[in-house]
Amino acid sequence: MKKNNKHILLAALTLAAIHASAQGNGAAGISEATQMVTSYFDPATQLIYAIGAVVGLIGGVKVYNKFSSGDPDTNKTAASWFGACIFLIVAATILRSFFL
Asked: Which domain, by its residues, includes 72?
């Protein structure tokens, strides 16, 4: 019984030492993580704008093909592609302004 108590005491002291050493860098770690995440927003925003431009070009070609072939569903296709491009641009702008 005495041997078992020593093991429990040793485990508790080890956990307390680990916990005490981990608390020292908490604020510095959070600050560094925040700085790293916010540094990614500008390149990510530019990437989303580029993806929106490519989606817009592909949508323009698809709408032109439907319009040229006389498809009656051209307006619906144009609205959906245009909406997707607007969503990408607005989402990138809002996320950037929300987090920075």
From this structure: 40-100
Which amino acid, 22? A
pLDDT digit of tens for each residue in the chain (100 aa)? 455 666 676 677 676 666 555 555 667 777 888 888 888 888 888 888 888 888 888 988 988 998 899 888 888 888 888 888 888 888 888 887 877 6
- Kindly report the three-state secondary structure assignment for every residue of 78-100: HHHHHHHHHHHHHHHHHHHHHHC
Same domain, 30 and 47: no
- How many domains in the chain? 2
Q: Are residues 63 and 80 in the same domain?
A: yes
